[in-house]
Write a structure and sequence with these properties.
By secondary structure, the chain is of the alpha/beta class. It has a single domain, classed as Vaccinia Virus protein VP39 (Rossmann fold, 3-Layer(aba) Sandwich). Helix 2 packs antiparallel against helix 3. It is globular. It starts with about 25 loop residues before the first helix and ends in a 6-residue tail after the last strand. The relative contact order is 0.14.
């Protein structure tokens, strides 16, 4: 079993009531607001603030998600030639046939995780991400979950994500090189599982590693090959599935390359 990697210092949390907690109390959630736009350039809060405003207008309502999206600098996760498109609502190539998801999709799937029974009751605990990619989704999750395990099957992307995340010093993020279709049993059970790749069925290991009260959010391809967003809630009686809107993700594959 691989020794889980981590980072040496803790992530900076928002100050004020609830600081340091994985997810703020309901009163704090209502009070949280997207960052006030100010300054110019890709490093400024203004560019991210406008992105957050678009996300809110599109239907993302969870204040902690909007705050996390406003704090994580997406342009640091894309290639230099694409930084001018970093805050547009579009997926972008990150190499090896993979992409960084649209901000709206990242926000949507993250918000769905926060709707799990255990997350509403106790805050979002341990999360497993299938498909680290460039590390952007993991950086967003790090601001909302107590602990994030993220697994990537492509070594070059695993290393790229490590390089992207290292300056952020996220002590609650653990990068794993491995086969995401197997999940990561050493960190189970998970309050949430989120996948950035879609197959024709969900691997049984994902359901087994999900905690009771937890939620899995993943794309799944139908018989016609088109993908739909699937939400699976684990109850004491078993797994309950809900099919949502159409999405487009890279195919889910096994093995390590």
């Amino acid at each position: 079993m691989q020794r889980r990697p981590g980072f040496p210092a803790r992530i900076g949390r928002p100050q004020g009531p609830g600081a340091g907690a994985a997810v703020a109390s309901p009163s704090v959630l209502r009070a949280a607001q997207p960052p006030t736009p100010q300054g110019v350039g890709l490093d400024s809060a203004a560019v991210r603030g406008r992105m957050v405003q678009r996300l809110a207008a599109s239907g993302v309502t969870a204040a902690p998600v909007l705050q996390a999206m406003g704090e994580v600098e997406r342009h640091r996760f894309v290639d230099t030639a694409l930084v001018n498109q970093a805050y547009e609502d579009t997926s972008l190539p990150i190499g090896l046939g993979q992409t960084i998801s649209k901000p709206s999709v990242v926000a949507r799937m993250t918000e769905l995780l926060l709707g799990a029974d255990c997350a509403r009751a106790h805050g979002l605990g341990r999360v497993l991400e299938i498909g680290t990619g460039c590390g952007y989704q993991a950086a967003v999750l790090a601001r909302l979950a107590r602990e994030v395990y993220t697994i990537e099957r492509l070594r070059a992307l695993h290393e790229k994500a490590r390089d992207n995340l290292r300056p952020m010093r996220l002590a609650n993020v653990h990068l794993i090189l491995g086969d995401g279709m197997q999940g990561y049993a050493s960190g189970a059970p998970y309050a949430g599982i989120i996948s950035a790749a879609g197959g024709s069925s969900l691997p049984a290991q994902w359901g087994e590693q999900l905690a009771v009260g937890g939620r899995l959010v993943a794309p799944m391809a139908g018989p016609d090959g088109r993908q739909l967003l699937l939400v699976v809630d684990k109850t004491s009686q078993g797994l309950k599935q809900s099919v949502l809107e159409a999405v487009h993700f890279v195919p889910l594959k096994s093995g390590v390359a």
